[in-house]
């Protein structure tokens, strides 16, 4: 292990620089756990302490400052739940490429949580992928925006439908809300369509128009609520979804 100073995360705050011996001592005393995130210069990112500190790590060398003396024990601290970005460590901020990789890797994963950046970067990716597919359709098949069927665009949308739905589900989990806020909308939309048909059958065009107006208002309110949910910062600690 090198002499390069280390940093660790405690209660959501970065602590350091400290010597490796101090981290080893804190782990042996139970103040830190082997899952505590640590970092030193040269590492790509924060990693669990277990990656660099073995269970039988030697005690700190005599004379190091700010180490507990013989007979003294520091009170164990709860495992940190937030990273340096202030977000829950299991729903961290993602970059564009990382969000794509994570969402495609969790293609049908509806459990767990997803941060705002993970959701919106993948949403941006789906929009860009759809635009690229539409351009290729126009070049290869001569289809335009007015055509009902564009093969590549349709296949792209179908391929990205499930991961987009899954990351939206996890995004709602991140603010401690059920993913059925998404699923319930589609059920309500189908029910609204049935209601419009029923009102049209019983009241003619006037009834159908009134039903369509009510459905439109409901859809607008829903989209506003969902936009607020999807833009809300996630819970900083564990919730009922993880």
From TrEMBL:
<feature type="region of interest" description="Disordered">
    <location>
        <begin position="64"/>
        <end position="84"/>
    </location>
</feature>
<feature type="domain" description="GYF">
    <location>
        <begin position="6"/>
        <end position="51"/>
    </location>
</feature>
<feature type="transmembrane region" description="Helical">
    <location>
        <begin position="205"/>
        <end position="230"/>
    </location>
</feature>
<feature type="transmembrane region" description="Helical">
    <location>
        <begin position="149"/>
        <end position="167"/>
    </location>
</feature>
<keyword id="KW-0812">Transmembrane</keyword>
<feature type="transmembrane region" description="Helical">
    <location>
        <begin position="119"/>
        <end position="143"/>
    </location>
</feature>
<protein>
    <submittedName>
        <fullName>DUF805 domain-containing protein</fullName>
    </submittedName>
</protein>
<keyword id="KW-0472">Membrane</keyword>
<dbReference type="InterPro" id="IPR025640">
    <property type="entry name" value="GYF_2"/>
</dbReference>
<dbReference type="Pfam" id="PF14237">
    <property type="entry name" value="GYF_2"/>
</dbReference>
<feature type="transmembrane region" description="Helical">
    <location>
        <begin position="179"/>
        <end position="199"/>
    </location>
</feature>
<dbReference type="GO" id="GO:0005886">
    <property type="term" value="C:plasma membrane"/>
</dbReference>
<dbReference type="InterPro" id="IPR008523">
    <property type="entry name" value="DUF805"/>
</dbReference>
<keyword id="KW-1133">Transmembrane helix</keyword>
<dbReference type="Pfam" id="PF05656">
    <property type="entry name" value="DUF805"/>
</dbReference>
